[in-house]
Design brief:
This protein is α/β, with parallel strands linked by helices. About 50% of the residues lie in helices and about 20% in strands. The chain folds into four domains: about 5-140, Rossmann fold; about 145-245, PAS domain (Beta-Lactamase, 2-Layer Sandwich); about 250-335; about 340-485, Heat Shock Protein 90, CATH 3.30.565. Helix 1 (about 15-25) packs across helix 6 (about 110-145) and helix 13 (about 345-360) runs parallel beside helix 14 (about 375-395). The radius of gyration is 42 Å and the shape is rod-shaped. The structure holds adenosine-5'-diphosphate and magnesium ion. Magnesium ion binds near residues 388, 391, 392 and 440.
């Protein structure tokens, strides 16, 4: 532990000795430097570097107040205790205004009180230094934090910003401190920002949200923003803290993944179409020719043994089955009539076939779709959504009834796929789906995302399943995913 270094300035030596005794009783290891005049003390201040100065007011030459003024000019934060005579309260007030930490009046119990006052002043000083150190640590952290941070007041004025925000926004610190928090965002996200601040004021938790930062140069940078509340140093007024994370790299990566999966799905669909066409046009045609060949095998033969005829009839039947299976396979790979019939009619066909193969009734309805046209890439994506939805009803739901609704509701197309089956725990099934290599629902979500839409699954055990899909309609091309954030 460091020795407590005390300086006493007192012109009456006897008085000093009493003070010294009282102090040593409480602080036996304290070192005490004694001066009869303030000016002498000031000369040796650097060398002694005291923890505390106790000065008498009334002294020849420089009085206590003049000493404090001179000390303040030296810009040293050394706590001072002023000793005044009885009835000198005005002096005490002046001393406190000059920064004295406490004062003591020379009365009967003066020597008993002195150690306690020293103890209090030293403790306060330690606290102050600790606070200063912690403020410095906070400052370093604030300034050098990897995310951009701003502090703003209730009237939305920016009170403080860190280096990262200066760098990200392109504004200087001075410029930022003359701005309001909403000036950092583009005009169309400001209402959303304001709503979050209002929620925060109502004491609600505001989760981080994606938006765009509007830079001085006019660029929009995708960011993730979080808000929190802070009390100011007096614990009264509430100030807010906003943290801003640049997510441009994440967005780029997401865009890349999205472009890749878009290309992958397109390639998959093209491949399916090719396979479907080959199966239908080549394999099924050749098998049809083979069947005709078998059916007419004995036409120009006069003598045919019954068992030979029977054998060929059986072979022809096998070929007929094979042709039928191949046509079904070709159909499920890519419904050939999507281009000719259009989306709604093809879905109707799909529902009818679903009923004939599963005996699960499908209630199909279309509304508001008149005049809505989709390009073929979009149509096949929408069709696959319904196909996977119905597939799941067949495979998992134990349902007796399903519903498919297509609703053109400007500016969106809404698709609902429902069943009255046994339902499932959506969250846990989705969480385990990837490990179990079950990708149906995930690929539905992926397809919906590609169209810039949203998908919601509602399901409860024994209460059936409802899938809501909402995709924006943009002209005849329903559109692939919007690459930009809405800002
Ligand atoms: N309509 C449904 N009714 C009941 N369970 C369903 C339904 N749709 C999906 N599920 C459940 O969700 C799981 C994941 O579905 P999915 O991703 O399509 O994979 P898969 O069909 O290959 O199992 C299924 O295994 C099933 O448990
Ligand atoms: Mg599935």
């Amino acid at each position: 532990m460091n020795t407590l270094k005390i300086v006493i300035i007192e012109d009456e030596e006897a008085h000093f000795q009493l003070m010294e005794r009282a102090i040593h009783k409480e602080f036996p290891y304290a070192s005490i430097d004694y001066f009869k005049e303030g000016a002498l003390c000031l000369q040796r201040l650097e060398e002694i570097s005291p923890d505390i100065i106790i000065t008498d007011y009334l002294m020849p030459g420089m009085n206590g107040i003049e000493f404090m003024e001179a000390l303040n000019r030296k810009d040293k934060d050394i706590p001072v205790i002023m000793i005044t005579g009885q009835g000198d309260e005005n002096i005490a007030i002046r001393a406190m205004k000059l920064g004295a930490r406490d004062y003591l009046v020379k009365i009967a119990n003066f020597f008993t009180l002195l150690p306690g006052v020293i103890y209090k002043v030293i403790s306060e000083q330690k606290l102050k230094e600790e606070l200063r150190r912690s403020e410095k640590r906070y400052r370093i952290l604030f300034d050098n934090f990897i995310d951009a941070i701003n502090i703003f007041s209730e009237d939305r004025r920016l009170l403080d910003v860190n280096k990262k925000l200066i760098q990200l926004s392109g504004y200087s610190k001075k410029e930022l401190l003359s701005m309001k928090v909403e000036d950092l965002y583009s005009v169309n996200v400001r209402p959303a920002i304001e709503e979050k601040i209002q929620n925060m004021l109502r004491g609600k938790e505001v989760p981080v949200f994606e938006n765009c930062l509007f830079t001085k140069g006019g660029d929009k940078i995708p960011v993730e923003t979080g808000f929190g509340t802070l009390k100011n140093c007096y614990g009264q007024e509430i100030v807010f803290q906003g943290s801003i994370i640049n997510i441009i790299e994440r967005k780029r990566a997401q865009e890349q993944v999205s472009i890749l999966s878009q290309q992958l799905m397109k390639a998959q669909e093209d491949e399916r179409q090719r396979l479907s066409r080959d199966l239908h046009d080549l394999v099924a045609q050749d098998l049809s020719a083979l069947k005709i060949g078998l059916d007419t095998f004995f036409d120009d033969q006069h003598v045919v043994y019954p068992d030979q005829r029977q054998k060929v009839v059986e072979l022809s039947e096998i070929v007929r089955w094979t042709i039928m299976n191949i046509r079904n396979m070709a159909y499920s790979l890519r419904p050939p009539n999507l281009d000719q019939l259009g989306f709604a009619k093809t879905v109707l066909n799909c529902c009818e076939e679903f009923y004939s193969s599963t005996k699960i009734k499908v209630d199909f309805s279309v509304a508001g779709m008149h005049g809505l046209e989709f390009d073929s890439d979009t149509e096949i994506i929408l069709y696959r959504l319904i196909q996977e939805g119905l597939n799941n009803v067949k495979k998992h739901a134990d349902a007796t009834h399903a519903t498919i609704r297509l609703l053109g509701s400007f500016p969106d197309l809404i698709i609902r796929i429902e069943d009255n089956g046994k339902g499932f725990d959506v969250e846990s099934r989705l969480a385990s789906a990837v490990n179990e290599k079950r990708l149906g629902l995930r690929s539905m979500e992926e397809r919906v995302t590609l169209l810039g839409g949203k998908m919601k699954i509602q399901s409860r055990p024994m209460r059936g399943t409802k899938i809501f899909i909402e995709v924006p309609y943009r002209g005849n091309n329903i559109g692939w995913q919007e690459k930009n954030l809405n800002c």
